[in-house]
Amino acid sequence: MLSKVAERIYWSARYLERVEAMARLVSIYDKLLFDLPKQVDLSWYNLIVINSLEEGFNKRYSVRDERNVVKYLIGDDDNISSVVNSLRAIRENIRTTRDVVPADTWEMVNELSMFVEDNLANGLKRSMRHEFLETIIKSCQQIVGLLYVNMTRDEGWEMVLLGQNLERADMTTRNLDAAIAAIVQVADDDFAVNSRQIIWGNVLRALNADQPFRREMRSSIKGTPVVNFLMGNEEFPRAISFCLNKIVTSSERLPKGDDAIQRTNDICKEIALDLQAEEFGEPFRDDLNELQLSLADLHGLIDKAWFQSEH
Amino acid sequence: MSIDWKGYAPAGFFDELFSDQGVSRAEAEPLISYLQSLSDEEVIARKNAAEATIREMGVSFTVYTEGGNIDRAWPFDILPRVIGKSQWDKTAEGLKQRLRALNLFIDDLYHDQKILKDGVVPEFVLKQSSNYRPECEGISPRFGVWAHICGTDLVRDSDGQFYVLEDNLRVPSGVSYMLENRSIMKRVIPEVFENVSIAPVGDYPEHLFDTLAALSPRDVSKPVVVVLTPGIYNSAYFEHAFLAQRMGAELVEGSDLVVLDDDCVYMKTIAGLERVDVVYRRIDDLFLDPEVFHPESVLGVPGLMRAWRAGNVAMANAPGAGVADDKVVYAFVPDIIRYYLDEEPLIPNVETFLCYDDVQRQHVLENLDKLVVKPANESGGYGMLIGPHSTKKERETFADLIKANPRNYIAQPTLALSTAPTLVGKNRVEPRHLDLRPFVLQSADSYVTTGGLTRVAMKKGSLVVNSSQGGGSKDTWIVDTGTGAE
After folding, report:
1. Is the pLDDT confidence value at B426 over 80?
2. C-alpha distances in Å from residue B431, one per residue of B9, B44, B77, B154, B420
3. For the domain B353-413, what is the CATH code?
4. What pLDDT was estimated at residue B60?
């Protein structure tokens, strides 16, 4: 497989994951804010912080309100991670790899891309937002499903898995980070226990993890079990350890994967160490930040092994 | 209330579907009676469905404007153009004959130049051709074939006869639109396919692959074939991707390939370098290899010509094949056919005046208001003078251009291009002029597409069918009426 094609597939999978995660994050946030007691001062701006987009956002907007945050995350041309821009990137990548992905992929990506551009205004209106985001999420799942049932299990498929799992692992660290940031803001009063539970519950829902969590952990929703589940579980597809194991398996099936495998195993050890913490408060955010840097480093190794050529 | 077919009149030109007002041709009969059964609402619904399909399929071409490049949806008319099978079969033979002769001509030019020595084609035609590549002299591509893929533009004049207007031997495009037009039609008016025996067009990519694979210099069971594209900013990128996908070939850009000291071409893969056997290049000669041609070209591959000359890679079309894609050479093609094949041309040329000849030039200069003047080496319909639609000032400009460089200009009578009913507005049909570009393949075997790409001038009275200048297209049906009559 051509290095350039591999790179485009890898990024298509990453962006596809990012679009779905972003849509999920925004749709969950709505509900989170409704559920929290009025005393809890949780702002939409948190979503900007989780995604490390403060600089770009502040350059563009002075008011950190719901409308601006949602607009920036979904429809902003200047934000490279916005849903519209991620979709454009997928569209451009699929357009240039149409010869290796299932034939319908292009049409479905094209349709989704047109849907989002045509209905952007609905994403900004609270009353229409749910349906708008739901359509995006379902379309992403449809495209991933198309790849899953139709794609030949060759190098291209491994690229899909690498991109998907690396993006997922990264997104899960960001969701955890968001939760802890919110929990730190919760005042230590009568509502605190309830508020914490609502926040952790929403993180689980954002990652489609609430049912698997309950079945696996048999625990009420509290910080320690949630963090352990989302980081350490090896069966749940959005848990970081699961994602990392997948990255190892895919790298083993590809030529020249040694460095990526080595680094991924190191990250697994890093996680085991992080999970030994007694509580997951503010200091744990530094661990998550470290973890994000490690994942970025892993991306660099993937890039070097498969997308760059010495000629 | 449906389309008023009874009132449709061919307006003094040969019409593809109607022989007279309200009288359809035998091969178009089943189509017209089907269309008559559709109400206005159905026609509009199907037109809209076609447009939505095109958007969803992402069939587009790129237009370069000052405001950046725009991907435009492919303009498409849902009323097909119909040609009788027996007439088509004869035309297809003529197209194969023509490409066979042109390939013998190119091969001769890069070797002994017998045709020049025998005085059939004047020597200066070659000397002044901007598409002759001295770098190609003495090279013998497999099967003696240089132009493996040819897009031949055919027109019908008022006599209903097909004429060759142009041979495109460099990087002809449009075949993907021919294929997409058919899939749009199958989605939009599936019923008619049940009742009319329409020859399929879908096997082109297989034939193209076989044509290319036969060129492989290595005797391997699965030769590595790549489509070399200039990239997404090229107006035909959609087609490059489409053909690579349908052939199961790799779509590559220059930066994906490398030529090493062993003079072999390799592509950069995730496992390292992999040898390439056949390059279907969609890049012009002069950008192919910065070692030989434009040194600043970033589209090409340094060393590609070296590898080709060493016989380690095949290129289609071969560099230098464009020498026969010259409007002056065009005027000699009937003689070229007689010279190499000892056969009469099966499809005639359009009458052509060569401006280098004193007598013919005089005729051209005196009749600029009636003729179409074309530069010898332009494509895409640019740099032309259409006499009857020109201003006095434009004619004066062209007279000066011709006098300054007579060799570079040819002139042809303004053709009464044939028409076909085309949907205008919501539910009216009016005649619009069209042409036809079939695609011809040659390597170990020859192949002609079933029909081709019909391009239609969407503006009333216009003769310009190029998509970059407001042209659209129609599906082209080769229909067997079963009677042998046309």
Report:
1. no
2. 8, 19, 12, 18, 5
3. 3.30.1490.270
4. 61
The reply to whether residue A99 touches residue B244, judged by beta carbons under 8 angstroms, is yes
- For chains A and B, count residue pairs whose Cβ atoms are closer than 8 Å: 72
Query: A227 and chain B: CB distance < 8 Å anywhere?
Result: no
Q: Do B268 and A309 lie within an 8 Å CB cutoff?
A: yes
Considering only the C-alpha atoms of chain A, give the largest distance between any 2 of them, rounded to a whole number of Å. 65
Q: In the prediction, which pLDDT does B306 show?
A: 96
In angstroms, what CA-CA distances link A149 with A10, A167, B96? Answer: 18, 21, 43
Task: Delimit the domains of chain B by residue range.
Answer: 353-413
Give the nearest partner residue to B270 out of A111, A114, A155, using CB atoms. A155
Cβ-defined contact of A110 to B56 (cutoff 8 Å): yes
Q: Which residue of B256, B265, B270 to mutate against A (max A Cβ within 10 Å)?
A: B270
The complex scores an ipTM of 0.81
* Percentage of residues in chain B having pLDDT higher than 70: 94
Determine the pLDDT at residue B483.
60
Contacts of B266 in chain A (CB under 8 A): 311
Q: Between chains, do B270 and A111 touch, taking CB under 8 Å as contact?
A: no
Grade residue B66 by pLDDT with cuts at 50, 70 and 90: very low
**Which amino acid, one-letter code, is at A255?**
P
Residue B247 has pLDDT above 80, yes or no: yes
Cβ of B56 within 8 Å of Cβ of A311? The answer is: no
Range of the domain at A202: 3-307
Q: What is the pLDDT of residues B126-155, one digit of tens each?
A: 887 888 999 999 999 999 999 999 999 999
Spans of chain A below 50 pLDDT? none
Q: How many CB atoms lie within 10 A of CB B172?
A: 24
Looking at the structure of chain A, the number of domains it has is 1
* Chain centroid, CA B214 distance in Å: 22
Residues of B in contact with A3 (CB under 8 A): 256, 268-270
Please check whether residue B372 is in contact with residue B417, taking contact to mean a CB–CB distance below 8 angstroms.
no
Residues B265-290, mean pLDDT to the nearest whole number: 96
